[in-house]
Every structure is written in C-alpha cells, then in structure tokens.
Amino acid sequence: MNVFICSPYRGDIEENTKNAKRYMRFAIQQGHTPFAPHLLYPQVLDEATERNKGMELGLQMLKLMDELWVFGREISIGMWQEIKAAQELEIPVCYISTEEV
Prior knowledge:
Layout: E1 2-6, H1 13-29, E2 33-35, H2 37-40, H3 47-62, E3 67-71, H4 77-88, E4 93-96
Parallel strand pairs: 1-2, 1-3, 3-4
Helix pairs in contact: 3-4
C-alpha cells in the first residue's frame, strides 16, 4: 500500500525531519511504500520562496496514495491542506500516535 506521510516540517526543521524519517521507517516496517514530500522537495526547492510549489507537487503525489497517515500532536497549516485534500479525494486518513512508532 502507498502511504502519504503527513507530519510537521516548519518550526524545528531538524527535529521534524528526523521524525519524518522515523515515520517513513515505521511505514516500511509495516510493509508499505511511504512518500514524505517534506523530506524530498526541500532538498531541491527553496523553502522560503518555493514552498507553495513543494506543497503543490506533494498534493499531486497524494492522488497516487492509498492512505494518508497523520503523525504529530499538532496539525500545521500544511498538514491541514494535505488532510483536506485527502478527504476531498476520498483517500482514508489515519491518525497514528507517535508513541506507536
């Protein structure tokens, strides 16, 4: 199953990146194929000036996913956009406790 990893990026970028990698590993260990746009696009796009392009690309990839997995206690604006898009696309949204990972 293809799963979209939805977790915070902004704020403590170093810690949030570390967590997103952990969430991807968790999905892999469950036998799934994860995609985390916030680990990919900031490597090639400037977060300050091209963030919207990264969000747009991530939402395009969301269309190919079987589920969206939400991690983290607080939902950022970007995460809300992803959750809303998944709901509109009728892609199941699963909230996963970070204590499970």
